[in-house]
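Hi all, posting the design record for the shared folder.

TITLE: backbone redesign
STEP: 1 of 1
STRUCTURE INPUT:
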């Protein structure tokens, strides 16, 4: 299963690397792909992982990172 999310606060290659490392370390995540131009991230998982789990992991690394579910941002961007 995979889901695509919008990422706020990703501004550099360093940010991208940190986000990839952080989200890849979450149990159940099998692959993470980033589209830097669209500020989106595609997460492949073994089972459903709550959005809050991703958000908490990112917040521990940097308070400026925010992950949004697709239904939240489709009409806003």
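Okay, here is what came back for every position:
SEQUENCE:
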């Amino acid at each position: 299963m995979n889901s695509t999310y919008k990422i706020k606060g990703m501004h550099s290659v360093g940010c991208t690397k940190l986000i990839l490392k952080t989200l890849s370390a979450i149990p159940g995540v099998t692959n993470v792909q980033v589209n830097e131009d669209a500020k989106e991230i595609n997460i492949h998982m073994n089972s459903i992982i709550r959005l809050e789990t991703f958000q908490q992991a990112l917040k521990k690394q940097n308070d400026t990172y925010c992950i949004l579910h697709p239904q939240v941002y489709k009409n806003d961007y």
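COMMENT: The beta strands are 2-8, 29-35, 40-45, 66-68.
Let me know if anyone wants the other runs.
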